[in-house]
Predict the 3D structure of the following.
Amino acid sequence: MSEKYFKKIEDLPREEWFVQGHRACQGCGLALATRLAMKALGPNTIVATATGCLEVISSPYPYTSWAVPWIHVAFENAAAVASGIEAALKALMRKGVLEPKKINVVAMAGDGGTADIGLQALSGALERWHDFVYICLDNEAYMNTGIQRSGTTPYMAWTTTSPVGKILRGKWTVKKNMPAIAAAHGIPYVATATVAYPLDLVNKVKRAAETEGPAYIHILCPCTPGWRISNEITIKISRLAVQTGFFPLYEIVNGELKVTVKPGKRKPVAEYLKLQGRFRHLTDEDIAKIQEHVDRECAKLGIP
Amino acid sequence: MEVEPEAKKKMAELEAMLKADWRSIPHALIIFEPATSRYYYTGTWRTFRPVTDHEKCIRCALCWVYCPEGAVRQVEDGAYEADLRYCKGCGICAAECPVKAIEMVKEE
Amino acid sequence: MARRIAVKDSEAVALAVKLANVDVIAAYPITPQTHIVEVLSQMVADGELDAEYINVESEHSAMSACVGASAAGARCFTATAGQGLALMHEILFIAAGNRLPIVMAVANRCLSPNLNIWGDQSDVMASRDCGWILVFAENAQEIFDLTLTAFRIGEDERVLLPVMVNFDGFTSTHVVEWLDLPEEEQVRKFLPAHRKAKYRLDPEHPATFGAIGFPEIQFELKRSWEHALVESKKVVKEVWEEFGRIFGRRYDLIDAYQMEDAETAFLIMGGSSGTCRAAVDKLRREGFKVGLLKLRLYRPFPKEELLEAIKNLKNLIVVDKHICFGGLGGPLFNDMRSLLYDANLNLNLTGFIAGIGGRDIRVKDFEKMVEKTVKGEVPPGKYAFMVRGDFE
């Protein structure tokens, strides 16, 4: 497990900074991820969110689920908005207009707002070395607008714009490796996390916030309507993603990669895929191909 | 669902904000008060309701951790229960409880 | 003591931004604005200007970063031109609708296609509904002064809107002119060193900016924004008045030149008004009763002031540097035609679209406009293109 700011469940703050009453679907992995991340970040945080599930569920005027200052601007610019906030606080504190104190500047965006339309802004912000945390809430498609594919939609997954038909069967390209892209910028901290490992998640978010310079966290968030799964298996699916090696949990600290949750005896990917309606068209051949791909990726990470 | 009079008043105030004249809307439609969604009871979405057996409950707090709503709270005897104002009945708590202390019961 | 220096107009912008003591600059270079951002970069690098300079990776991010920074309470500035303004189009509305007093200098440049880096007004005109205060400057001094006053106007609590300072790409930006540069002490009397942001992202007062605007409420938001923009005219006047008292240069919403007994007048914005002035002088020498109305404030549109300025004219010639494709001519021409509908004035209005893509508008072109109008070759209410094949 990652750096132990929080060693056990009891160490987690009871207070909520992403509060009840939000409009997420029943069993939403993204809402849980945000709720947990906010426990690591606390009240001295400013959040910039891209258009997407998180923004829409948390800010239906006049209801807001945010107990911290929060801004939504557009779809592709969470990282640019956060850059502006970070620069403003820096300048204003240096000039004595604001009292110098640690305020976490955090950009939160979905996979669309990160890997596709938001990629440019993210890359610029990382290269410019702003002192901020970027959290990608990856539910693996443009879920808010009705399950259209994104760059991080996994190979062969059904979405409405990569549907299963007579000629094409789901997304025909592989999942874009966003953590690797972030790491390629040479930033001091990159991590992957998912909701089934809450302590691992909060420790990583906290570590990202404590890191001087840019930090990127990629959180896998199961989506009950988008993945065609039953409401109550969000955590189970998230756990299987890790235990099958489909979504490895690691940290890259100043370029050095360390796996933080070792799956032990890796479960076959079929166990993960068979629970999800978006993969129900997969043949044994397809699954074998995916297994091969996962095996290769795990080998690269030193996961047996 | 029973709604406290304080909360009811606040809910009415919030709903009234959607009927404001352009001269009296908040500046740039900023929501100046934090966490107003606490006055939106998503509990009405439920089809199933989690019922916790306090005897079986081992106070591990996993249901509290895993609830996407933050709708689980610790009660007087230390056990954990769903806050029915917000619980959407997803069933994650029941699925994850290590001692199967939670049962999902159909709402009438 | 103010001192007189010779500078490129683009440098004049940078000098104003420096004296405004901005906190954050987020800008992307684009011809012909580049010298503005280069000079600012050097000022920051030398410690002459204490600001965070964000080298954003596109204009869209430039405006986005300004929105973030301004929402966090900073005094911000950016600059762009042509394609850059078009690229940030989406965010312009968000900046204004969120009531953020960002100041942006735009070196007006022709929008593609084809690639054209030279000056016309298609960039700002294609975005004229963005809800910003739009002002147009003619020369180095005006560009400097209007940029400085833009911060004061935008930050006024009655306004809280972003301000776009427009001027000619190349024919202003790359031209060296005289500038009376005030001392910082004097500027501080006019513009405080720091912005007092009433509404900002502040953990002590956590607020939600940019929530969903449902159909039940969105109209009210936009209506209140329109009200703020229209009402800002008062503040523009006030601030330009005060500026005049402190610095000795007073700016009006409209400059009237040789208008006292004019029968025919030009209505124009930006740098070409300089050439137009020379044309007016020439025509006057030839016995024509011609005048010039240089419009400085374009949005909010100064209806009352314009009606007052044109009420005794026989002919009004509107010069535009943008084609409203498929519509009824140029944007300023359209605005005037609309204004005159119920104005009950016995006035011949003609429109000329000139200077597209950096095509030079010469004294003789202005003379031709008068000729065509007076001779009825461009009849009242009609417009023409000063292009080879129509008139050149």
